[in-house]
């Protein structure tokens, strides 16, 4: 909760080891619970390869104990679906989310907060596979359920507004996106989220991306630098969230003519994405497009050819429209 993920990992590893020592049988519910808890921290640290087997084993144990979908195993199912979405294993993730939503709707009801959480997670998958309208509908469903359950002030509303803002930006509704990001930030303030909590960085960075497209470069830079520095206390520079903002910083440095800062930022981000996620990852291709623009502006045609083959055509088209 406080964002100290390293300490949290150590505590959860100790708790899992203790549960395994005390377990009376292989299919132990407490062991499965601690596996899922440890996996949740590993996911936050971007250790997806370590988290995946823990979640799979935890879910298998829980499904064996409960005989299928159950409120306890559903939370593990949600985590695994989100992790597989991050790993771009979309078909299996979609199967998990459909089972999850059906189970929570049946056992908890369509208007229960946890059902709304399931729709939110499903929205992430729909966004990644390009179903923009489906994602917006899922996010709005989560917002409606949360408001009905808790009123107009709740931490989940901050995340919900952020998600709607992401989709609005994807659909190039920049004013709507900016409004939703500001609502997310205001909600974080309203619920008393600590000023240095890493979750503060999500709407900051998102707002920066809108400001970048609006050519409000100095304002965008401020948001990106705040986001990067805030996360620095919690994540390594190689963490995917830091690489994303590093790419953003490179883009805004390019537009500001700060080329000595732009190139190393973009190259480090590109290398990190390529090494960890591959050339086909959208973030690698986005950063490639940003490198192409940088080398075009600095008149380095050989370097343009190095990256243009892997650059996102959608991102290049957007740059032409906005810049």
Notes on the structure:
- The chain is mainly alpha-helical and 323 residues long.
- Helix content is 78%, strand content 0%.
- It is built from 16 helices and no strands.
- It has helices at residues 5-22, 29-44, 48-66, 71-86, 90-107, 113-128, 132-150, 155-170, 174-190, 201-213, 217-232, 240-255, 259-277, 282-297, 301-308, 313-322.
- α4 (71-86) packs antiparallel against α5, α10 (201-213) runs antiparallel to α11 (217-232) and α12 runs parallel beside α14.
- The two termini are 40 Å apart.
- The mean pLDDT is 93.
Sum up the structure in keywords.
78% helix; globular; 323 residues; mainly alpha
Entry summary:
With 323 residues, the protein is mostly helical. The protein has helices at 5-22, 29-44, 48-66, 71-86, 90-107, 113-128, 132-150, 155-170, 174-190, 201-213, 217-232, 240-255, 259-277, 282-297, 301-308, 313-322.
């Amino acid at each position: 909760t406080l964002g100290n993920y390293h300490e949290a990992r150590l505590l959860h590893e100790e708790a899992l080891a203790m549960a395994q020592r005390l377990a009376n049988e292989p299919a132990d519910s407490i062991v499965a619970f601690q596996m899922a808890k440890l996996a949740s921290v590993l996911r936050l640290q971007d250790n997806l390869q370590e988290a995946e087997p823990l979640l799979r084993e935890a879910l298998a144990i829980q499904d064996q104990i409960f005989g299928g979908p159950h409120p306890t195993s559903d939370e593990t199912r949600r985590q695994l679906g989100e992790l597989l979405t991050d790993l771009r294993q979309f078909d299996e993730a979609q199967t998990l989310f459909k089972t999850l939503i059906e189970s929570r709707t049946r056992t908890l009801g369509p208007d229960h907060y946890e059902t709304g959480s399931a729709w939110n997670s499903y929205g992430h998958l729909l966004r990644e596979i390009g179903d923009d309208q489906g994602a917006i509908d899922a996010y709005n469903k989560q917002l409606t359920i949360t408001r009905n359950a808790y009123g107009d002030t709740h931490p989940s509303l901050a995340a919900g507004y952020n998600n709607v803002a992401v989709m609005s930006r994807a659909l190039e509704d920049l004013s709507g996106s900016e409004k939703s990001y500001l609502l997310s930030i205001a909600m974080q303030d309203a619920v008393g989220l600590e000023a240095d909590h890493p979750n503060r960085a999500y709407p900051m960075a998102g707002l920066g991306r809108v400001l970048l497209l609006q050519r409000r470069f100095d304002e965008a830079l401020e948001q990106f630098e705040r986001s990067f520095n805030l996360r620095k206390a919690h994540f390594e520079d190689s963490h995917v969230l830091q690489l994303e903002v590093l790419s953003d910083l490179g883009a805004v440095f390019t537009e500001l003519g700060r080329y000595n800062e732009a190139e190393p930022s973009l190259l480090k981000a590109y290398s990190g994405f390529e090494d960890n996620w591959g050339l086909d990852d959208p973030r690698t291709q986005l950063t490639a497009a940003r490198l192409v623009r940088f080398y075009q502006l600095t008149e380095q045609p050989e370097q343009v050819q190095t990256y243009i083959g892997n650059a996102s055509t959608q991102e290049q088209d957007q740059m032409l429209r906005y810049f």
